[in-house]
TrEMBL record:
Protein name as catalogued: Nucleoside-diphosphate-sugar epimerase
Coiled-coil spans in chain: none
Pathway: Bacterial outer membrane biogenesis; LPS O-antigen biosynthesis
Gene3D superfamilies: NAD(P)-binding Rossmann-like Domain
Superkingdom to which the source organism belongs: Bacteria
UniProt domain NAD-dependent epimerase/dehydratase: residue ranges: 11-221
InterPro entries associated with the record: Epimerase_deHydtase, NAD(P)-bd_dom_sf
Region (Disordered): 255-282
Pfam families: Epimerase
Family (UniProt): Belongs to the NAD(P)-dependent epimerase/dehydratase family.
Length: 306
């Protein structure tokens, strides 16, 4: 089935009100899909509102197995995109309930209605450091555990599963505390930017490319279960990203190295997983970091002018 042939097809997106989820939801609706957005009751819909997109809202908490199962059986989606997570580091009960049990609740229900593909989107924080055998933090560990269980259950029950993993995703509507929005904000204000000590190098992928990768993974002719890294193929240090932001904005972007607290992922040595995941066949990123930043700068300027 061609990637664009989604008209009228039932699709379920969890975490649809998040940064990536909102962009994915908007793209699926634009393609004509019948999109059901599963979100917790009372969650903010700001990103969906700002993208002027209106999916069918399904107010279900993934940690509620019966409610999740009932919703999936009622909707009977052909494709499921799982992006909902808890990032509450330090709260193991919540991390396990949402990221592990919630993901399994959704996969098991999706298998019962024979969905055509279940796509789970993970992140670099779940990569395992070969020196320590650990993930970057407890959030990453919970996602790594979920990935193992999802793949195991999907293989045993023959559920078509795609486990995708990104590194650093950026673009319009990203959280303000992230590196690129912070750099752009300081560039616009002419203020010095505090920096945490960091030796990490990341692959920066524009959110539009992540959306296209999710759609491609759902509809591509691939084995029943596969894993793939969503990446541009180039790693950037924090200093290189800031220098590029300064170049493209024309700003004198000053930094204050070491003035922000260090975080676990700033030195985590987990690298793209070439043993259990490989590049997504038939897909490639359309924007390198320079093109993506130019697009984002243009978007920000048009937003301010509008």
């Amino acid at each position: 089935m061609p990637e664009s042939d989604l008209s009228g097809r039932a699709v379920l997106v969890t975490g649809a009100n998040g940064f990536i989820g909102a962009h994915l939801t908007a793209a699926l609706l634009q393609a004509g899909a019948d999109v059901h957005a599963m979100v917790r009751a009372g969650s903010s819909m700001d990103r969906l509102d700002r993208l002027q997109t209106a999916p069918r809202i399904v107010g279900v908490d993934l940690t509620d197995h019966a409610a999740t199962r009932d919703a999936v059986h009622r909707i009977r989606p052909e494709f499921v995109f799982h992006l909902a997570v808890s990032r509450q580091t330090g709260d193991w009960d919540r991390l396990l309930a949402v990221n592990v049990a919630g993901a399994m609740n959704l996969l098991r229900a999706s298998g019962e209605i024979d969905c055509r593909r279940f796509v789970s989107l993970g992140s670099a924080l779940e990569r395992i450091d070969p020196a320590t055998g650990t993930a970057a933090n407890d959030y990453g560990a919970s996602r790594a555990a979920a990935g193992i269980l999802l793949r195991q259950h999907a293989r045993e029950h023959r559920i078509p599963l795609a486990c995708l993993r990104t590194d650093y995703v950026y673009g319009p509507l990203q959280g303000e505390g992230k590196l690129i929005p912070t750099a752009l904000r300081h560039a616009a204000r002419g203020s010095a930017m505090p920096l945490a000590p960091s030796t990490a190098r990341r692959d920066y992928v524009h959110v539009s490319d992540v959306v296209s990768a999710c759609r491609h993974a759902a509809q591509a002719h691939q084995p029943d279960q596969f894993s793939a890294e969503i990446a541009t193929g180039r790693l950037w240090s924090v200093a290189e990203v800031i220098a590029l932001v300064a170049e493209l904005t024309g700003a004198d972007l000053r930094t204050e190295p070491g003035s922000a607290p260090a975080r676990a992922w700033d030195t985590h040595r987990g690298q793209p997983d070439t043993e259990t995941a490989s590049p997504l066949p038939g897909w490639s990123a359309t924007m390198d970091l320079r093109a993506g930043l130019l697009d984002l700068i243009s978007h920000d300027r048009s937003g301010r002018e509008g």
